[in-house]
Amino acid sequence: MATATKEFDYSVRDRKGKLVTGRLEAPDEAALVQKLRGMGYVPLSVRQANTGMNRELNLPGGNRVTAKDLAVMSRQFATMINSGLSLLRALSILADQTESKTLAKTLGEVRNTVETGQSLSSALARHPKVFPPLMINMCRAGEVGGFLDSVLLQIAENLESEVKLRGKIKSAMTYPVVVFVIAILAVIGMLLFIVPVFEKMFKDLGGTLPAPTRFLVFLSDLMTLLAPAMVVLGIVGVVVWNRVKNKEGVRMVVDPFKLKIPVFGNLFRKVAISRFTRNLGTMMRSGVPILQSLEIVGETSGNLVIRNATRAVEESVRRGDSLAGPLAQHKVFPPMGVQMMAVGEDTGAMDTMLEKISDFYDQEVEATTDALTSLIEPIMIAALGGLVGGMIIALYMPIFGMYDLIQ
Description:
- There is one protein chain.
- The protein is mainly alpha-helical.
- Helix content is about 70%, strand content about 5%.
- It has a three-stranded antiparallel β-sheet, with helices on one face.
- Helix 2 packs antiparallel against helix 3, helix 9 crosses helix 10 and helix 11 packs antiparallel against helix 12.
- It is flat and about 95 Å long.
């Protein structure tokens, strides 16, 4: 009877000391190690491959590395480097203790790349979907300047601020979104399940229904016909939107519109300005060249309006002009922020001034989210109550005249 075999991923060193990785079949790990040694290799690691029934189940979004994961990793990384641990040893520890499976796997690959003699920044650059350009370029500057631990701490602080900022936005958006969804579900439920019951009762009684009730019955009949199509269109719309939302043409329309929304537009602008100034200040403090910093922060600002403005600034700086001058020509940048940048240029403390601007707008975002939450809560409750209450009144209006119909 043939012996069952399994597939294993292995990492070895050949006779010249070169790192080699691959996949082989063997009955067990011990047999594979013996086989690799017989081929003249020095085994470093052997693990069973995730294939077929052994493959792990990944839920949508479950393999995504968050900014919080990177922030925790950066701070731990800086602590270990500052304590004298070697780069390879620190990467091994990080890969073992991180909670994100995707990040753990990526750090293992980064360690293997560094072990071949490449720099840390080059190893990180091989995984652009996990490590943002800002982190890669700051690590490169830290390697060149010999202050990698300090740079990693700055990366951690930057990412922690980003996580905090996103938390504030979520706190402002969660309540109105939840109430809006509940209102939509309540209306759909009443139109599909409650109104038809009353419609049948009204038909049995005869007579002419009030106009609001007739309109509600019309909406109920329309919803009954269109509900399946709306579900399908909703699912298709979500899928299509996730595929096209990051395309240039779509963002050219959506991003400017986001800044013009009556209530939330000002909040989105403050968030973009805070992110822009924080990232630019962090990179300049880390020693990344100004042109390279501008290119990166423009792409990471999250808004095409900011990115296009940053490109104009980049061209100005390339010609030898000031940094703050071109910003004044773009309305998305507030005059106060532009003037503070100009002062930072004159005094040679641009990174410090950018940090102050970022802190100011972080506080502005917090104050705005608190004000929005206080304002939206009673408005949404009143709107939800008015919508559901109006439907109930429309349903009960014929009942008020039921005695006359019976007579």
